[in-house]
UniProtKB/TrEMBL annotation:
Sucrose phosphatase-like domain residues: 470-705
EC number: 2.4.1.14
Keywords: Glycosyltransferase, Hydrolase, Transferase
Record-given protein name: sucrose-phosphate synthase
Ranges where the Glycosyl transferase family domain occurs: 252-418
Entry-linked Pfam families: Glycos_transf_1, GT-B_Sucrose_synth, S6PP
Family note: Belongs to the glycosyltransferase 1 family.
Enzyme class of the recorded protein, top EC level: transferase
GO molecular function, a single term: hydrolase activity
UniProt source species: Methylophaga marina
Catalytic activity: beta-D-fructose 6-phosphate + UDP-alpha-D-glucose = sucrose 6(F)-phosphate + UDP + H(+)
NCBIfam families: sucr_P_syn_N (TIGR02472), sucr_syn_bact_C (TIGR02471)
Length: 717
């Protein structure tokens, strides 16, 4: 584009999915989800700007009797400045994105030919998702056009979720071509002038682990919200049929509504919201609680994680006797959601998102656009949203009292409620509407299109492997925690090596308690978090639970029989409910009254297939026979293809012993419970550190020269 020309021509590329201007088939399959709507609405918003002369949304042409004939039209003119361009690539029929990789080179060649046949080529290419990134990189390099990229999801992160679902590395490669996808993302990052993300957290937790990541390349522009669909109350919401349906079980349906809307997922932390409400008589007097937690017919038909969440929710409702004050409708439709927000706003209510982790928080923007003040987790995207809109209160999702205080502030002060409601409407229009998004976007890309602001790349080092080559596993108590100065040094060392080394925490504590301790000591979220003594495994960046592990350890596990055998056993006392979980029964043990070996003998005589472990001389855990920290470590190592010889383990109590035995590089940090591991002192590959806590971990890493072999590999490659 010649200097001085104000209008620019932008080509957006979204290779897969079925894209047309009207009647998007959202949810038809995994390829017709939010990305197709995002790209279409972005293109429409850009075409409305005066400094844009042309927008092409480029996708794949599909000629298939099983889909609408519109997808076979080479060009669909949407308005005078916006058209959908369909390029031939591969077979005529519709195929999923995982099967497109062999056809992307042909797509790129055909697209370059299409541009050459026009009067002028685009001033800018913007690719969406990894496959479009590869196409965009080829075309941008061939025609000398700047490339902008939006990943939507990243291969390295998706691989973690797939492993958590139970797929093996071989299955992931076969089904998803993951190595090709990750390499395509690296090529895209090596080519793109700018990469647009939704939040700063997305950059820190996802893009930074890529070799070709460049800090100056990244820009945060949140996606837009359709403010024609999500809007403030019109005045008749409390007379609607939906309001009657939502509130018919409530004793006083005309109180303000505290609204929560999420999947029945443990990470969404809905139980804490019920606990906050149940523990506050004042909140119960002021408002009703409406929880929209997906659709269900029979809870027993749901997957195990959702069943567990609903069990916790109903137990909490019953414990606090909240009948007539809390409702959880069984069914709702997607198109009813905007009205739900307006009903909450019209009632003078509040929208709450208490999730443990929230990378973006689209529901918060939808609520704000509907005039509802928000209370949200201080993790991730909500910080940006409330920082921009000033329409709500951030809470600690691990402390129910912070939820209670925030709700009381909003529900007892009409001036505050009105102020947050109006600021939310203003903030969404300014920062989160598609019009606002398009304006920020065009300000960002215009200098690129004019070749006035190109990226100055910094030198980088490529790793020698697609995935991490080694890992550090450590317990929390008396290992990481205890010396904050050394802990800070250790965290910095791990960050410096994060591209080659996975960081994992294995603790006997429950997920919520572990997260609370990590937050208190400013320990970043690990790549792998093993909790409840090895019975639960979670992966960053969204604390994705490993459902395959749960299925694996649920083998001959009959906790009700174990309870019957141990209830009233002399010298044993049940730990609080907060320390119990689906696969862990926890007791305090008095070693003066009972020997752990006697407990093992009793359970085995009664044919209970269990793993019994003692920690810190007083905490006894009964687990499924397949579960322990060591078994969880080996399961993760196998799934992530990290040799045990490349895994460093730091432990400090008897509960860590089976992590340390075998082929790992192990270290016992100095503490008063070393006697529980004293039998390991003559074992090969186990180092007893002189220093305690994180200082002992640093000492042990130096002893093993743990990071040196990776540096040697880099130098020789």
């Amino acid at each position: 584009m010649a200097d001085g020309v104000e209008q620019i021509y932008i080509a957006l590329i979204s290779v897969h999915g079925l894209i047309r201007a009207d009647n998007l088939e959202l949810g038809r399959d995994a390829d017709t989800g939010g990305q197709t709507l995002y790209v279409l609405e972005l293109a429409q918003a850009l075409s409305e700007l005066p400094n844009v002369c042309q927008v092409d949304l480029v996708t794949r042409r599909v000629i298939d009797s099983h889909v609408d004939a519109e997808y076979a039209e080479p060009i669909e003119k949407v308005n005078d400045k916006f058209r959908i361009v369909r390029i031939e690539a591969g077979p005529d029929e519709y195929i999923y994105k995982e099967h497109l990789w062999d056809h992307l080179d042909g797509f790129a060649d055909n697209l370059a030919d299409f541009f050459r046949q026009q009067d002028h080529v685009p001033d800018l290419i913007h690719s969406h998702y990894a496959d479009a990134g590869l196409v965009g990189s080829h075309v941008a390099n061939l025609l000398g056009i700047p490339l902008v990229h939006t990943g939507h999801s990243l291969g390295r992160v998706k691989r973690r979720r797939l492993l958590a679902s139970g797929l093996t590395t071989e299955q992931i490669e076969s089904l998803y071509n993951m190595t090709r996808r990750i390499e395509a993302e690296e090529i895209t990052l090596a080519t793109a002038e700018r990469v647009i993300t939704s939040t700063h957290q997305e950059i820190e937790e996802q893009y930074e682990i890529y070799d070709h990541y460049q800090p100056d390349q990244m820009r945060v522009i949140p996606p837009g919200t359709n403010i024609k669909q999500f809007k403030p109350p019109e005045g008749n919401e409390l007379e609607s049929e939906l309001f009657k349906k939502l509130t018919h079980q409530l004793t006083d349906p005309h109180k303000p509504i505290i609204l929560a809307l999420s999947r029945p997922d443990k990470r969404k932390n809905i139980t804490v919201l019920i606990e906050a409400y149940g523990e506050s008589e004042r909140l119960q007097q002021l408002a009703n609680l409406v929880i929209i937690a997906g659709n269900r017919d029979d809870i027993d038909d749901l997957e195990a994680g959702a069943q567990e969440v609903f069990h916790e929710l109903f137990v909490a409702i019953d414990r606090y006797d909240l009948y007539g004050k809390v409702v959880m409708p069984k069914h709702h439709k997607r198109e009813q959601v905007p009205l739900m927000y307006r009903i909450a706003a019209a009632s003078g209510g509040v929208f709450v998102n208490p999730a443990l982790t929230e990378p973006f928080g689209l529901t918060l923007i939808e609520a704000a656009a509907s005039g509802v003040p928000i209370v949200a987790t201080e993790d991730g995207g909500p910080r940006d949203i409330i920082g921009n809109c000033h329409n709500g209160i951030l809470i600690d999702p691990l402390e129910s009292s912070t939820i209670t205080d925030a709700l009381l502030k909003l529900l007892t002060d009409n001036d505050v409620w009105d102020d947050y409601s109006s600021k939310g409407l203003e903030g969404v229009a300014k920062c989160y509407s598609w019009q606002a998004h398009a304006k920020r976007y065009i300000d960002l890309v215009t200098p690129l299109a004019q070749r006035a602001e190109l990226l100055q790349r910094k030198p980088l080092e490529r790793t020698s492997h697609v995935y991490a080559e080694q890992a550090i596993f450590t317990d929390l108590d008396l290992n990481l925690i205890g010396d904050d100065v050394s802990l800070h040094k250790l965290i910095n060392l791990i960050r410096e090596n994060r591209k080659t080394t996975k960081f994992a925490i294995a603790t006997g504590r429950r997920l919520d308690v572990a997260l609370r301790m990590m937050k208190k000591h400013q320990i970043p979220e690990p790549d792998i978090l093993i909790t409840s003594s090895g019975t639960e495994i979670y992966y960053a960046p969204k604390l994705t639970p490993d459902t395959s592990w749960a299925q694996h350890i649920d083998y001959h596990w009959t906790p009700h029989k174990v309870r019957l055998l141990l209830d009233g056993y002399p010298g044993l006392e049940k730990q609080p409910k907060s320390e119990q979980s689906r696969f862990k029964l926890s007791y305090y043990i008095d070693p003066e009254q009972v020997d752990v070996e006697d407990i093992k003998r009793l359970l085995h005589q009664e044919e209970q297939s269990v793993h019994v472990q003692l920690a810190f001389g007083q905490y006894l855990d009964i687990l499924p026979i397949r579960a322990s920290k060591g078994m969880a470590l080996r399961y993760v190592a196998d799934h992530w293809q990290i040799p045990l010889e490349h895994i460093f383990v730091a432990g400090g109590s008897g509960a860590d012993e089976d992590m340390m035995r075998g082929n790992t590089l192990a270290a016992v940090v100095a503490n008063r419970h070393n006697e529980e591991l004293s039998q390991l002192i003559d074992t090969d590959r186990i180092y007893f550190a002189d220093k305690p806590f994180a200082a002992g971990i640093l000492e042990s890493l130096e002893h093993y020269q743990f990071f040196d072999h990776v540096k040697t590999k880099k130098a020789s490659s």
